[in-house]
User: Fold this.
Amino acid sequence: MKKLMIGILISIIIVGGLGYYKYSKFVEKKIEYNQTLEIKQGGSLKASLKKLSINTNSILFKLFIKTKNDGKDIKIGLYEIKGQKNLKEIFEILEEGKSQIERYTILEGNSYRDVVKLFTKGDKEKEKEFEEELKKIDFPYPTPNGNFEGYFYPETYFIPKNYSMKKKLEVPLKYFIKMFPTENYPNKEEFYKKLIMASILEREAMVKSEKAIMASVFYNRLEKDMTFSSDATVNYLYNYTKKRMYYKDLKIDSPYNTYMYKGLPPGPIANPDKHSVEAAYNPLETDYLFFVARGDGSHFFSRTYKEHLEFQKNNKK
Assistant:
């Protein structure tokens, strides 16, 4: 009987030891991460952690989570998980709110004003800080009178929450340089003109394949000493609040009014994507001089004003 009890005890110790070994290995195993993790209010913790390839259904995880107050100490937020981390270290990050990041999404065609609003959330003091810190950034492309319109590349950026305003602004601006390396565009003044054109294409063209055609229209009008007559450049003056432009809106006196003044406006009118910049550099060869919206996002292109008017007349709603 004594031998039986000793045997049972030894078995318990061995099984317990193996269990603890497996548990420790599960908790201490390091995995290489380079991703974002969002913990939402009222969201499923298990669902979030599964994105990190953590087996939340295993008995080992269930044992671990019990030691962590069932995850109730985890702070809501967006996190950057980078480098080799084990389960214990990940929970330390989530419980202490370490490595919290913020998501900033700049959309194609967003203006500088949109970017300011995005980074400051409408806080007037932060807006002042935004403007002041932007002046301190050394940027390799032209910024006439401190104008950074066009240089905030459309993308979703994940930026550490504890970054200073200057460091936050450097993230999208550095990405712009990555997209358009200075060594590829040695003529900076020419690049700026193309950026202005690209910004107009970004606001005017909804269909990507039409950007190069539309670019040809503007270059053809430029060559013939005609005005661009772009609604987008005028709407820029109204902060893009006009859903439709009327003749009275076109009377605003500004070098950005391309109905009133010939040539390119003095600066970009939005933040264009790479496709728009490529179209500005590589317009299609056409003899089109006019375009008008069809109503489905695409445009009708024409060579003469007569064709232009006929299309409008025949397609009135």
Observations:
- The first strand starts at residue 31 and ends at 39.
